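not sure who needs this but someone in the group chat was asking about Tubulin-specific chaperone A from Smittium culicis so here u go. i didnt clean anything up, its just raw.
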Amino acid sequence: MSSLKSLKIKSGSLSRLAKDKIVYIKESEQIKLKIDELVKNNADEWDIKKQREILEETLNMLPGCDKRIAVAHEDLSNLVVS
């Protein structure tokens, strides 16, 4: 595989992973707002609990994103150096 092709693949992968992280962050912010609205409107406790579970799952995705971004960054850096 050519160096240029590898560079495009690795940089594209890093870019996609960074976008994924941004999506998770935005999603978690939206869920927090939804929870605040539910609490403010005295919504059913089950609905609030479910949204908190969804928020927790979303926030749990962020450390994995960080690890994958670090690995992709390292791969790209190694390719550029070599």
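also The chain has a mean pLDDT of 94. if thats useful
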